[in-house]
Amino acid sequence: MSCLAKVMAYKKTLTMGVLILLAVLAVAIAVPIATNSDTDNSLAPQVNQFFGRTVLDEVPLIDGHNDLPWNLYNYERNQINKFELNADLKAHPVWGPATNSHTDIPRLQAGKVGAQFWVAYVGCNNQYKDAVERTLEQIDVIKRMVRKYSQYMRYVTSTEGIMAAFREGKIGSLIAVEGGHSMDSRLAVLRMFYELGVRYMTLTHSCNTPWADASPIDDQPEATLRNVTGWGRNVLWEMNRLGMLIDVSHVSHGVMVEVLEHTKAPVIFSHSSSYSVFNHHRNVRDDVLKQLVQNNGIIMVNFYPGFVGGRSIDNVIEHLNYIKSVTGPNHIGLGGDFDGVTEVPDDLDDVSKYPDLFDMLAEGVYKNGTTFAPWTREELRKLAGENLLRVFRDVEGVRDSMVDVEPYEDLIPYQDFVDAGVAEQPCMSDLDIHKQ
């Protein structure tokens, strides 16, 4: 072949190669254009879209406060052998119409709840009467409920237990006592609660105890504030020694401050919101939130419209965003207060709606259309459960460091009952008799 022929053949081959390359590129460009022009273009924006609910498959969603056991008492008198929780209670003739019923197993599963503190609550009207016995009944019904539905729930008492339940696809079920009146001012009862599986106690409910003030006192200018009494500090330290989380929801502002000053371990607010967002004595002021950061504790945000200032899911998100702006993302969680309230926010009206909340936080858009800084995956993991797990581990660590500390056994002084207004000051003759 002549040189000219070789050159012509080479050019022809090169031209064909270029044409083939251009054809491939044209197809590569045309296919996505055709796909995107299809009437269903839902796949395109989802390539990199982050759905907040996906974190609930990665870490356990740990809710700090659910009052289902209280409803078991109210509606079933704790007789649960023939009661079916694994059913749609919205269709139940008694539970369905009840405005304070928000929980059943199908809705817990739909809500991707990974762990739940079930609350053993008895009313303040039981204080100085049968509060201990009634609390024991509530602890009992929680244990029986978990045992009955062991296919879906696992009784746990530790961080390791929570994670083990999550790996099994079960709801880690912990016990909490709501209100220091349940221990009847007896440290021995507190210790027995721990032995029975109680892993947090709220220091007060809406009533003062002889050793700590409840939050309503903050709206009573004429009241004498006692905050936490000297003996009340023994309660804190014994809880530290046991490894029981101290819950400062429901307590007065003064008690919050003093507990954070004297505790040896991080504390929790199991179901509280921000006072700056909505001024209510049940909410937490900014100075306490800043103390909480130093304590390395956690505030688990309440959903109750009476505490968040409205009936929209937007109101709850406003509290979450504000608290995060004060504390950062490491000190915030969720404590819905379901089954303990008669009003709930729209779009966050039962335990099935947590995934929707996480989607909204990840998207950064309120229901009303305004926007806020989207929460990152890392922040949502912390909100869901990582923060509570950290706090709980720290409390367990303090317990382990106090293994050689003897139990606190001082009896509450009679004067604490007098100062609380529930006992009379002994007369001088009585004092003289005691001296003899």
TrEMBL record:
Q: Which InterPro entries match?
A: Dipep_AS, Metal_Hydrolase, Pept_M19
Q: How does the UniProt record describe the way this protein sits in the membrane?
A: Lipid-anchor; GPI-anchor
Lineage, top-rank taxon, reads Eukaryota
Record-level Gene Ontology MF annotations: metal ion binding; metallodipeptidase activity
**Pfam families tied to this protein:** Peptidase_M19
Annotated compartments: Membrane
| SUPFAM superfamilies with a match to the protein in the record | Metallo-dependent hydrolases
Q: Which GO terms describe its cellular component?
A: side of membrane
Which EC numbers does the record give?
3.4.13.19
**Disulfide bond among keywords:** yes
A GO biological-process term: proteolysis
Reaction equations catalysed: an L-aminoacyl-L-amino acid + H2O = 2 an L-alpha-amino acid
Essential cofactor(s): Zn(2+)
Which family, according to the similarity comment? Belongs to the metallo-dependent hydrolases superfamily. Peptidase M19 family.
The subunit field of the Swiss-Prot or TrEMBL record says:
Homodimer; disulfide-linked.
The protein here is known as Dipeptidase
